[in-house]
Amino acid sequence: MKTLSTETRCVMTPHGAMDYTLERKKVKNINLRVRHDGSVYVSAPKRVPVREIESFIISRSEYIRRAAVYFAERDVKKAPPSYTDGERFMYLGKPLRLNIIADSREYADMCGDELQVHVRDSENTARIKKLTDDWYSRRCSEVFGEIVAEVGGRFRKYGVALPQLKIRSMTSRWGSCHYTKGIITLNRRLIEAPRHCIEHVVTHEFCHFIHPNHSKDFYALLGKEFPDWRASKNELERTVIL
Question: To the nearest whole number, what is the mean pLDDT of the chain?
Fold first, then answer.
């Protein structure tokens, strides 16, 4: 689509001054998008006056503000952990405070709302990370295994055998199903989400053993076996940012 002109402008809104990029294009309507860096992009037909465009931006200023806050929080959540004392980690939807304890024995364990990491050298970040990751790996194996067994029990009536469970880090999906080999793979980071969100992902993957697609029949089966799947999906995406 041909761009006629581009300029950066500023408009005063109820939430303060707001910069935006305006592109004149061969489009029918005014279009507004908040980019992941919080910047505002607007495309509009050449014939539409600036005052009308800015009136539209003002009318959408609350949405723009909320979107900018969301993306800023999302970037914070996506930042890699530093493994420093007091840092917050998530486990089954609840925050855990990292408590680094100098000790001759080295191990990690949960105590109340703390993830306590016992380590000989409390400044050894690499060792703290290793102990933390090992604890999460053990919990993934235990929790995911329990859920796969529970959901698998419900799918016996469809003739689905209990699949092999694999756990790995993934950057763009929560899980996958290799229906011809009888394998379900789950994203390690699911352990950060509430248990019912994990159950939704596992149920989703089990449904693929019957419908290896995202057809209407697939979603009908998912809705039957996990009626609140939409709410759980939305909660998962708010809780854990990939």
Answer: 93
